[in-house]
Write a structure and sequence with these properties.
By secondary structure, the protein is mainly α. The chain has helices at residues 14-30, 34-47, 52-64, 68-80, 86-98, 102-115, 120-130, 137-150, 163-174, 179-184, 198-203, 238-241, 247-266, 270-275; strands at residues 190-193, 214-217, 233-237.
Length: 278
């Protein structure tokens, strides 16, 4: 951005220039152009590194783009530079949750609630972290219930489903994916579990979010033909999947898991399904 007036008589002062560039970032955020927001925020920070508002916006956009490491660093730096209130603490807790850093989630979400006691997202992420900690289930339910009471549309309770319900949902989800991928899963054992193992998620590169709906077991790189050598099992995580607002959306979310895990195993892109690669 060129701040000079064409005749070269005067230049915008620093605070006005920063404010204008921040407005550009906010407009990109408002239109969900998160990559543009990141680029604009990074350009501003290259020129003026100690801008907590720019760091906060960079963190927000990075979190939306599925880059929790960048987000956590930017939120932390914004807070260090003096950004106050619950929003940066909630954002930091969300990024740390995606990274599986539950103890930090608890600390920052709790601090966010001290600043903003009625912030539903702080209650929600704290509840998600606590339910993954041994012996903290009752506290988790308290915070998840508080989030639901404050914002029932965004944070509903998990749907209650029995084993037979899950089998029906799985069968329906298989009908919503490409026939080649539905065939791929035939004969692969399904193992149902409430939640994934955090150590496994943290060991992956990149780190897998704790809210993942399912993961295959096995290593496709050891198979000469990954189509012929299938995963040893497919693990599906009921508590994560059941957080969809309706049963239909549970089916849709499970279909996404079935497709993404099959494509990952096969080393295919979604476009390969259209060309019939096999």
């Amino acid at each position: 951005m060129d701040d000079e007036i064409p005749n070269g008589v005067w230049r915008l002062d620093e605070s006005t220039r920063v404010a204008l560039r921040l407005d550009v970032v906010r407009r990109s955020m408002a239109t969900r152009a998160f990559e543009d927001a990141v680029l604009e925020a990074e350009e501003l920070l290259d020129e003026s590194p100690d801008q907590p508002d720019a760091l906060f916006l960079l963190a927000e956009a990075s979190l939306e783009l599925g880059q929790p490491e960048v987000a956590a660093e930017a939120y932390g730096e914004a807070i260090r530079l003096g950004l106050t209130g619950g929003a940066p603490l909630v954002g930091l807790a969300l990024a740390q949750f995606d990274l599986g850093q539950l103890e930090f989630v608890e600390a920052n979400a709790t601090a966010a609630l001290r600043a903003s006691p009625d912030e539903p997202e702080a209650h929600h992420v704290l509840g998600l972290a606590l339910e993954r900690m041994p012996g903290r289930e009752a506290e988790a339910v308290t915070h998840l219930a508080a989030a639901r009471a404050l914002d029932p549309v965004r944070f509903p309770f998990p749907i209650s489903l029995k084993s037979a319900d899950w089998e029906r949902i799985l069968n329906r989800a298989l009908t919503r994916i490409h026939p080649d991928l539905a065939e791929f899963w035939q004969g692969v054992p399904v193992r149902w579990a409430p939640l994934p193992d955090l150590d496994e998620l943290r060991a992956a590169s990149p780190v897998i979010r704790p809210t993942v709906g399912g993961l295959y077991e096995g290593d496709p790189t050891l198979a000469e033909d990954p189509w012929l050598v299938r995963p040893t099992a497919l693990r599906l995580y009921t508590r994560n999947l059941a957080r969809a607002p309706t049963r239909e959306e549970v089916v849709d979310d499970l279909a996404v898991v079935l497709q993404s895990e099959a494509l990952d195993w096969l080393g295919w892109a979604a476009t390969d399904l259209e060309t019939g690669s096999q």
